[in-house]
């Protein structure tokens, strides 16, 4: 199968177009690592039927990990996690009113039984969600594991011993 026909194993969903400025951090780091991702807008409150269809069919579509980002009353990651057995990584998008504190608490405080692996607020969380999703896939993909280790080594090599 050529790379062009490889089905994405990672889905990135977000509650709004306005989340893309943050969530593209996940897409970009995955692209750097050569990992295909399917990116969609899926709003828990504006498109609940799209959310239900996406989450309940995600496993049969071949996804292995789902990254879900939302802001404010950010119920998207938790609702996705409730509807699939796949691992869900939640990214709290920085909100205007409460700087993402609302997003963070909405996503991180899941009751026991339905986990959402919650990352940091904003772009750092999105990038780390991409890296963590890649690390999950890398447990069964030696080539990806090597690319991930090279990414980390390059990051280490890029840190100067002294500030300039
Ligand atoms: C949430 O509401 C979205 O995830 C977004 O972070 C926030 C604001 O959405 P918009 O009003 O910009 O569409 O559902």
Automatic annotation (TrEMBL):
Molecular-function GO term, any one: 5-(carboxyamino)imidazole ribonucleotide mutase activity
InterPro entries: PurE_ClassI, PurE_dom, PurE_prokaryotes
Binding positions (substrate): 16, 19, 46
Domain of life: Bacteria
Entries under SUPFAM superfamilies matching the protein: N5-CAIR mutase (phosphoribosylaminoimidazole carboxylase, PurE)
Protein name as catalogued: N5-carboxyaminoimidazole ribonucleotide mutase
Pathway the protein takes part in: Purine metabolism; IMP biosynthesis via de novo pathway; 5-amino-1-(5-phospho-D-ribosyl)imidazole-4-carboxylate from 5-amino-1-(5-phospho-D-ribosyl)imidazole (N5-CAIR route): step 2/2
EC identifiers of the protein: 5.4.99.18
Similarity remark: Belongs to the AIR carboxylase family. Class I subfamily.
Cited Pfam families: AIRC
Domain spans labelled PurE: 8-159
Keywords assigned by UniProt, alphabetized: Isomerase, Lyase, Purine biosynthesis
Enzymatic class: isomerase
Catalytic activity: 5-carboxyamino-1-(5-phospho-D-ribosyl)imidazole + H(+) = 5-amino-1-(5-phospho-D-ribosyl)imidazole-4-carboxylate
NCBIfam families assigned to the protein according to its UniProt record, in alphabetical order: purE
Coiled-coil portions: none
Lineage, top ranks: Bacteria, Pseudomonadati, Pseudomonadota, Alphaproteobacteria, Sphingomonadales
Function: Catalyzes the conversion of N5-carboxyaminoimidazole ribonucleotide (N5-CAIR) to 4-carboxy-5-aminoimidazole ribonucleotide (CAIR).
């Amino acid at each position: 199968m050529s790379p062009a026909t490889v089905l994405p194993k990672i889905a990135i969903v977000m509650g709004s177009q306005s989340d893309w400025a943050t969530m593209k951090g996940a897409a970009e780091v995955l692209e750097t690592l050569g990992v295909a991702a399917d990116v969609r807008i899926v709003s828990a409150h504006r498109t609940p039927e799209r959310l239900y269809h996406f989450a309940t069919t995600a496993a049969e579509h071949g996804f292995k990990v789902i990254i879900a980002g939302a802001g404010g009353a950010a119920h998207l990651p938790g609702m996705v996690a409730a509807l699939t057995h796949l691992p869900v990584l939640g990214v709290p998008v920085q909100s205007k009113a409460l700087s993402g504190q609302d997003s963070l608490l909405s996503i991180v405080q899941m009751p026991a039984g339905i986990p959402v692996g919650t990352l940091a607020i904003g772009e750092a969380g999105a990038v780390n969600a991409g890296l963590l999703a890649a690390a999950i896939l890398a447990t069964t993909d030696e080539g990806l594991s090597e690319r991930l280790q090279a990414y980390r080594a390059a990051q280490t090599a890029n840190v100067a011993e002294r500030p300039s």
